[in-house]
Amino acid sequence: NAGVTQTPKFRVLKTGQSMTLLCAQDMNHEYMYWYRQDPGMGLRLIHYSVGEGTTAKGEVPDGYNVSRLKKQNFLLGLESAAPSQTSVYFCASSSPRSSTDTQYFGPGTRLTVL
Amino acid sequence: DQQVKQNSPSLSVQEGRISILNCDYTNSMFDYFLWYKKYPAEGPTFLISISSIKDKNEDGRFTVFLNKSAKHLSLHIVPSQPGDSAVYFCAAGRDTGKLIFGQGTTLQVKP
Question: Tens digits of per-residue pLDDT, A54-76?
Answer without folding.
Answer: 999 999 999 999 999 999 999 99
